[in-house]
What does this fold into?
Amino acid sequence: MITKRIIPCLDVKNGRVVKGVNFKGLTDVSSPVELASLYSVCGADELVFYDINASFEERKLFTDILRETARSVFIPLTVGGGINSLDDFDRALKNGADKVSVNSGAIRDPSLISAAAKRYGNQCVVLSVDAKRVNGEFRVFAKGGREDTGIEALGWIKSGIERGAGEIVLNSIDTDGVKKGFDLEMTAAVCEISRVPVIASGGAGKTEDFITLFQSVPEADAGLAASVFHFGEIQISDLKKAMAKAGIPTRTVI
It folds into this structure.
């Protein structure tokens, strides 16, 4: 049975890890290098590193911080923020990323997904989707959740998979930072139309939220969270023990 992954997320702004609620009210947390190093040795299965203002500020990814962060981890690292071209994919990979996450860049130019998949392989291309309920449908947002694109999320995800995305990160803006549990409805809807791994993001507040995610939506491949790990509210080793006790397959923490 495929093990379920636990993935801390580093939202980086001006060289520091930050966290907010519903993509707003960002507060300083720590150094991305220090946190990445900690997670690498305490049982995290992967890490996600987002330069969250790169797309909004229309600039390139912070490669110096990425490079230093990548040196400190020994688990797969997915990197996103300001990815708008194959050159951006290439720069992220050359500076330590194992996978590259694309969001706003793919919305502007959907052919970027297929071009990147062709050059680097599907397994390297992660489609990150910031979604929110609007008028009864799941809507795609861009530029760090600031801009309603008017695009229906399920159709967008399906087309992204058809173009070659090898993994989906589903960021529910509705539950982001609220700590009342993952968006089970949205995650289930995405898993139903996806043939590639789906990572649920947004809403984890306690250990039981991860267990509820994997028991309620067994098709979900991973749970991603930020503040509950950053502030020590959940220890990954304890989380994995609880998952194992609940019969959820997970990689053992040594």
Q: What stands out?
A: The CA atoms of residues 229 and 235 lie 7 Å apart. The domain at 5-245 is CATH 3.20.20.70 (TIM Barrel).
